[in-house]
């Protein structure tokens, strides 16, 4: 790579970072509807058409910024997990869950942005970037559950006793993750995930403000229930 090409690439990366920062400011300060090509361009003192040199359109910009948020969230969870590297698998799992909550309540606009639409298979460059970043986030908890399953299998339901449609979907999901969890263990993983995510959504979106002013003990109670479901012997507290 020539010095001129390298300099051009550095300038392009710097501009992309400025674009993403401007989009994030608009999101946080004014809401998702405010994040338009023209609004972002105005923030940077550019014309709308100039921004199309970097992104083909609004959807591609949204995909790239969403990928940033997913990577930031995943990194926070990974850091919390790795800080407990010498501790039992259950402690690492719960640390990652707590980090997910901490990031989400600290960044409610970003949380709403990344979880406002389903993660679909990519069909454009920005979709691919978003998809890969989302998979990194999903992989944090999945990897921990797989490790837990392999080292000390947790209780699972009788697959034959589940409704046929659910069995088919769980079997397909198990195949999609290369059989790292059998269908019945995948059912436990997905049940844990939906409980965590559902509670977190209600907290971040202030759906429980009518009853609670402090959601941390509610979240910790949820973690204790999940620990029981997963037959974890030790449940470290949020400060351990």
Structure, described:
- This protein is mainly α.
- It has ten helices and no strands.
- The protein folds into two domains: 54 residues, Arc Repressor Mutant, subunit A (Orthogonal Bundle); 171 residues, Tetracycline Repressor, domain 2 (Orthogonal Bundle).
- Helix 1 packs across helix 2 and helix 8 crosses helix 9.
- The longest helix has 28 residues.
- The mean pLDDT is 90.
Layout of secondary structure:
Blueprint: H1 3-30, H2 37-43, H3 48-51, H4 58-83, H5 89-106, H6 108-114, H7 125-151, H8 164-176, H9 183-204, H10 216-229
In brief, what are we looking at here?
With 240 residues, the chain is mainly alpha-helical.
Estimated structural class: mainly alpha
Instruction: Let me know the CATH homologous superfamily of the largest domain.
Output: Tetracycline Repressor, domain 2
Tell me the number of structural domains: 2
- Portion in strands: under 5%
CATH third-tier fold name of the largest domain: Tetracycline Repressor, domain 2
Give Rg in angstroms. Answer: 21 Å
CATH top level class name of the largest domain: Mainly Alpha
List the helices and strands in order: HHHHHHHHHH
The number of distinct β-strands equals 0
Looking at the structure, what is the overall shape? elongated
Report helical residue fraction.
Answer: 55-70%
**CATH architectural label of the largest domain:** Orthogonal Bundle
